[in-house]
């Protein structure tokens, strides 16, 4: 009777192992085998691949010039915020936090890898998806944002023309902070074509943007007649 009971327990165990349970939760890919295929524990491709989606990590890079500022925050125990945007870098997909960063800099690109963790509650982020990331390292409070061409340089250093209530301007020395945004052409684009060369004589501005929203011409760009500024600053200051 004991021998028969042992056999019964063995067969019950075989039935348990006949059901394959996923070791982790996630999304399964396309099956690697079809019904009726003979499978063994040593199967090279397995039955199916499971990818964890919640949470999901995003690997991104940043310039080595930003490394010191990031380390100062993380070594103080700060949890830095990371936001993932779509390919066009316009729509926010998911918010997360910085988990860790690599232990060496890539000498070919001068960048370092970082890993952000996202809870991905709605499964918006997908494995191997291309996203743009923004890492919030620090907040600058009570700062005035102006378009880059509004900042001029003279004997007193950096300064801007501030528009007063009577529509006259006054010189205001400023301390320049971080610059964000890319330069784009806002005037004279009909005279440009792909690969056209321009020059930016910063010492000969045709006008300036006032910090209170008064607008004028930006720095001249040579014979092409086009004008450029850092898009994000100009949109914020001129609204």
Give your account of this protein's structure:
It is a single chain. The protein is of the alpha+beta class. It folds into two domains: 56-136, Efflux pump adaptor protein, beta barrel domain (Elongation Factor Tu (Ef-tu), domain 3), CATH 2.40.30.170; 148-238, no CATH class. The protein is built from three helices and twelve strands; from the N terminus they run αβββαβββββββββα. A hairpin with a 5-residue loop joins strand 9 (157-163) and strand 10. The model is unreliable at 203-239 (pLDDT under 50).
Task: Report the structural category.
Answer: alpha+beta
Shape: elongated
Largest sheet: 5 strands, antiparallel
Distance between the termini: 89 Å
Could you give the count of β-strands? 12
Nearest-integer average pLDDT: 78
Strand content: 25-35%
Which bin fits the share of residues in helices? 10-25%
Put simply, the count of helices is 3
For the largest sheet, list the strands in their spatial order: 3-6-5-4-7
- Helix/strand order: HEEEHEEEEEEEEEH
The rounded Rg comes to 29 Å
Overall domain count: 2
Uncertain regions: pLDDT < 50 for 5+ in a row?
A: 203-239
């Amino acid at each position: 009777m004991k021998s028969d009971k042992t056999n019964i327990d063995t067969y019950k165990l075989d039935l348990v192992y006949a059901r394959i349970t996923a070791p982790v939760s996630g999304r399964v890919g396309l099956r690697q085998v079809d019904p009726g295929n003979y499978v063994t524990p040593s199967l090279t491709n397995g039955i199916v691949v499971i990818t964890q989606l919640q949470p999901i990590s995003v690997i991104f890079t940043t310039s080595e010039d930003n490394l010191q500022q990031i380390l100062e925050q993380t070594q103080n125990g700060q949890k830095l915020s990371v936001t993932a945007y779509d390919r066009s870098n316009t729509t926010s997909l998911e918010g997360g936090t910085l988990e860790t960063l690599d232990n060496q800099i890539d000498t070919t690109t001068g960048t370092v890898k970082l890993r952000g963790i996202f809870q991905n509650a709605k499964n918006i982020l997908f494995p191997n998806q291309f996203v743009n990331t923004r890492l919030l390292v620090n907040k600058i409070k009570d700062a005035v944002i102006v378009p880059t061409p509004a900042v001029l340089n003279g004997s007193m250093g950096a300064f801007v023309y501030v528009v007063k209530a009577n529509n006259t301007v006054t010189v205001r020395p400023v301390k320049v902070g971080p610059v964000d945004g890319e330069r784009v052409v806002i005037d004279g684009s009909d005279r440009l074509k792909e690969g056209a060369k321009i020059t930016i004589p910063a010492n000969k501005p045709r006008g300036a943007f006032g910090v209170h929203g008064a607008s004028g011409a930006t720095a001249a760009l040579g014979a092409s007649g086009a004008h450029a500024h850092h898009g994000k600053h100009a949109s914020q200051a001129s609204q």
